[in-house]
Amino acid sequence: MKKSAVVIVICVVAAIIGLPPVFGTRTESQFYRRIDAINDNGVLLLDVRSFERRWFTSTVTIDAGLSPAYLAQLERMVGPGGQAASDSGVLDQTFPIQADVAHGPVIVRDGLYIGLAKVIAGPASAQPGTVELEEDLGIPYAFEFRGRSGLLGGLRFDAEIPASDYADGINEVVFSGAQIEGSWNGDELISHFQAASLFVSNPIAAASINGISFSGDNRILSRHLVLGSAEFLIEQMLISDRTFGGEPLFEAGNIAIRGETDRNDDGPLVSGTMTYAVDTVSAGERFRFTDGEVAVAFENVDAEAMSDYVEAAQGLGDQAAGNPAPITVLLPAIHRLLAAEPLLSFDPIRFLMDDEPFEASVHVRTNPAALPDTVTGIQEDIALLVEALYGVTDAAASKTFARRIAVEIIKAQLAASGAAGPFPGDIDSMAEAQAEIMLGALTTQGVLEEDGESYRITFAFEDGQFSLNGNPLPFLFGQ
Length: 479
Known about the structure:
Layout lengths: L1 H38 L4 E10 L3 E10 L1 H11 L16 E9 L2 E2 L5 E2 L2 E7 L6 H8 L6 E6 L5 E7 L2 E4 L4 E4 L2 E8 L2 E14 L3 E18 L2 E17 L5 E17 L5 E15 L3 E16 H12 L11 H14 L3 E11 L2 E11 L8 H6 L2 H5 L1 E10 H19 L6 H21 L4 E3 L2 E9 L2 E4 L2 E6 L3
Antiparallel strand pairs: 1-2, 2-3, 3-6, 4-5, 6-7, 7-8, 8-11, 9-10, 10-12, 11-12, 12-13, 13-14, 14-15, 15-16, 16-17, 17-18, 18-19, 19-20, 20-22, 21-22, 22-23, 23-24
Helix pairs in contact: 4-5, 8-9
């Protein structure tokens, strides 16, 4: 019995001592696979400068930055008339990161753990400016990432950005710190982010954001196709003017962005929803919006065609490559997208302004029967592309709301033209009188329809024909 126990102990010790190099090799292989997966997103670029694998541990040095393709996209967004952000040497810099890895199967770092590896990563200590930054902010480190890889390869992680308080006599930044946690297994990524507050101020203005959080449960199939759900929340946002006693310029409460995307019966088409909501928005003392919501839904989107469209659109800026005309590059993907009968809706679009309601909806769909069978047909007559679309927009607002908007528009025009009159009250009375005339004229002309205490309007497009409140408008697309 004692001999058996001794043999078992010897085998366990041998495994503990002998297996770490094997697990180190597996860890290195998995590490590079995760780096490749991150680089595939087309935004970040992680370059492994060194991977020093030892018996029980490894040390990895990584340069992190934005990918050249994403930097080129930013430059195209700036346009030829402006200076690209990368030209200033800000966005094209890299940030060295050092990762210390402990190999399994038995790891005693920060407590006993049975698994493939444990990793702790953060800014490389030798990076110029890192120590100075940490001293200025009074923090032990800029950030710390901790990961635990199981025997089957899944990764559970958490990260921390410590709280900081910076002031130089002119500017001030106070950050509560942030916590991140989640798991990454194959193409499945679950993540949670939370930060209590951020305050930034200078002699001119101050801004604060409270209650910041993000949660995601996603499958990342490619850089253009992410399935699952996500939620981003902000409890309060405030911007104030410090030059006039700290008066609020903008304030918003309970901002929420929620999204969900999935395949249609596991096929090539994708459908999803996005909802943007806010409880209150105030812009100074003149405007107060409440109960705001915009719900976006899309159905029957060909994921592969959309990916091809995005790739083609991003490549349009490379004129040196001899690309054909933009519309020619995009047409094959557009043809496939429309042939799948996609639907897009913004329903509802609604909010209250000073308790007066506004509500609208927009619906767009395609008619594949009106779409040419081949891309060549569209190239010969681009109008056929538009004629395959159907869209309708409905909007309704209380008469008080419409009158308020009309008054504000006319007041701005009067002030700009200098026709407001010599007294402050003149512009108000003139605007109110002209607003009544304008709304009456729009109602008489059939642009607005009265519905009790509300105005309504319906604008539609079908078979190349526009209509307003059911009445054809005297022009066609392309004429």
